[in-house]
Amino acid sequence: DAGVTQSPTHLIKTRGQQVTLRCSPKSGHDTVSWYQQALGQGPQFIFQYYEEEERQRGNFPDRFSGHQFPNYSSELNVNALLLGDSALYLCASSSALVLSGANVLTFGAGSRLTVL
Amino acid sequence: AQRVTQPEKLLSVFKGAPVELKCNYSYSGSPELFWYVQYSRQRLQLLLRHISRESIKGFTADLNKGETSFHLKKPFAQEEDSAMYYCALSGFNDYKLSFGAGTTVTVRA
């Protein structure tokens, strides 16, 4: 099992562009969460998807949107990119079947986004 | 609002010495607390959670609700403990984790 896989690993965009990041959860997991990690900071929760619905959202603007597919994989979309969106974007998966399992996360390696 | 504070950005200890990483939190209800760790060139991974009351890799952490703390301790640090450590909190019926800014631990020979 490859665990959580994310793509791309690195990408560079310019201000105003749009970006899509992709995530495949660990085998057996059905819940996907996205986090933004700025340099020198801890990860910040963007949103969580379960059963193809956004179950909870953090304090991020509507420019950040997501999707979960029937195979549990997920996408994070960011529109109208700002310089401040430069960060490492982490995908984490978990299992809703495990008691309190929603917060026992398996993380991917991340997608590093640079906005110029 | 929930908040996690890790007051030390950097911690350097000698091999065999005790190590303690501080974590304080603010949350009005009963939180669930976690420690996540990231070793060099590896992914962020769960180290331990308070409800498990386990000792993982010699580390323990006790939830002190009076002091709103969840400090991570190990009596004898090893070089392989060098890593970035994050304290995280989840509220009741909450699906998000709130992370602290992290503490980088370096264990010197």
Global Rg of chain A: 13 Å
The CATH superfamily of chain A is Immunoglobulins
In the CATH hierarchy, the third-tier topology of chain A is known as Immunoglobulin-like
Number of E strands of chain A = 11
Q: What would you give as the CATH superfamily of chain B?
A: Immunoglobulins
Mean pLDDT of chain B: 93
Structure report:
- The complex is a heterodimer of chains A (116) and B (109).
- Chain A is mainly beta and 116 residues long.
- Chain A has one domain: Immunoglobulins (Immunoglobulin-like).
- Chain A is built from no helices and 11 strands.
- In chain A, strand 5 and strand 6 form a beta hairpin.
- Chain A starts with a strand and ends with a strand.
- Chain B is mainly beta and 109 residues long.
- Chain B has no helices and 11 strands.
- In chain B, the strands form 3 sheets. In chain B, strands 2, 5, 6, 9, 10 and 11 form a 6-stranded mixed beta sheet that branches. A 3-stranded antiparallel beta sheet of chain B has the order 3-8-7, with no helix packed on it. In chain B, strands 1-4 form a two-stranded antiparallel ribbon.
- At the A-B interface, strand 5 and strand 10 of A face strand 5, strand 6, strand 9 and strand 10 of B.
How are the elements arranged and paired?
The complex is a heterodimer of chains A (116) and B (109).
Chain A: E1 5-7, E2 10-13, E3 19-24, E4 31-37, E5 44-50, E6 53-57, E7 64-68, E8 74-78, E9 87-94, E10 106-107, E11 111-115
Parallel strand pairs in A: 2-11
Antiparallel strand pairs in A: 1-3, 3-8, 4-5, 4-9, 5-6, 7-8, 9-10, 9-11
Chain B: E1 3-5, E2 10-14, E3 19-21, E4 24-26, E5 32-38, E6 45-49, E7 60-61, E8 72-74, E9 83-90, E10 98-99, E11 103-108
Parallel strand pairs in B: 2-11
Antiparallel strand pairs in B: 1-4, 3-8, 5-6, 5-9, 7-8, 9-10, 9-11
